[in-house]
Amino acid sequence: MLSKLESPFPKKIAPVLVVLLLLLVLPGVINARGQAGAGHIIWLPMVLNTQPSPTPNPVHQGIATYYDATGDGACMFGPSPNDLLVAAMNAEEYDNAAYCGAYLHLSGPKGELNVRVVDLCPECKAGHLDLSPQAFSQLGDLVQGVIPITWQLISPQISGPIAYHFKDGSNEYWTAVQIRNHRNPIATLEYLNSSGQWVNVPRTEYNYFVQQNPGMGKGPFTFRVTDWYGNQLLDSGIQHIENGTVSGVAQFPPGP
């Protein structure tokens, strides 16, 4: 389910889609699996449209190099042999994994393309992207080694909802969750604790949100995920599966 709150990032652009949530308490409602339940609480979305912002994400000037990319790396998404249009973000803008999973539009001497950020380039300075050979070759000749580029954060059309991946070793005391298949960069992850309070889960530089002392418990969990633009997705009934992935129910709306 989707909601829109004031963005915690004042420099970001407000999205086109605003969604308000009504909390309804009914004596007998239909739950998420289509079964009747007594005294359950459900969320119903109310969708409002606002004027789109005319200001796009900024265009960065920089350079591109390439490395032997597999799709795995510091963001810990795992290898993606069928999708090698990927990039490593420079250390100055990696920002504790904030760009992990983000999509960028690149322009170079030979052409342009979109890439997904999956790794960190520790020695790279601001503006520098280290690409897979497959991506680099669409912008310049491999023999050049280094080429000038521009790049911009984008919000492409992708299939399916966001997903929650639990790390190997994750448990009720040390709960590590990674957000996958998101069209916009992720700002925060929260879970609803046993007292009915939202708890912000700290993000690690290896792109997992880790809750410990205490952990999240055994689950199932209710999660609230916020993107860079203030859009929120709310998922409940998420079962804990160590080293497993559980799909949410929705995808973020397009960003600017």
Describe the structure using short key phrases:
five-stranded antiparallel sheet; 256 residues; 2 helices; 19 strands; Immunoglobulin-like; single chain; 2 domains; mainly beta; Barwin-like endoglucanases
Number of helices in the DSSP assignment: 2
Strand order within the widest sheet?
A: 6-10-7-9-8-11
Whole-number count of domains? 2
Unreliable residue stretches: 4-52
Radius of gyration: 20 Å
CATH class of the largest domain: Mainly Beta
At the fold tier of CATH, the topology name of the largest domain is: Immunoglobulin-like
Distance between the termini: 21 Å
What CATH architecture of the largest domain would you give? Sandwich
N-to-C SSE series? EEEEEEEHEEEHEEEEEEEEE
CATH superfamily of the largest domain: Expansin, cellulose-binding-like domain
Helix content bin = under 10%
What is the topology?
Blueprint (H helix, E strand, L loop, with lengths): L1 E3 L12 E9 L2 E3 L5 E3 L2 E9 L9 E8 L19 E5 H4 L8 E5 L4 E10 L7 E3 L1 H4 L10 E8 L8 E4 L7 E7 L5 E7 L5 E3 L8 E4 L8 E7 L3 E8 L6 E3 L9
Parallel strand pairs: 6-10, 7-9
Antiparallel strand pairs: 1-18, 2-5, 3-4, 6-11, 7-10, 8-9, 8-11, 12-13, 12-19, 13-16, 14-15, 14-17, 17-18
Protein architecture, described:
With 256 residues, this protein is mostly beta strands. The protein folds into two domains: 139 residues, Immunoglobulin-like (Sandwich), CATH 2.60.40; 96 residues, RlpA-like domain (Barwin-like endoglucanases, Beta Barrel), CATH 2.40.40.10. 3% of the residues lie in helices and 43% in strands. It is built from two helices and 19 strands. A six-stranded mixed beta barrel has the order 6-10-7-9-8-11. Strand 3 and strand 4 form a beta hairpin. About 19% of the residues have low confidence.
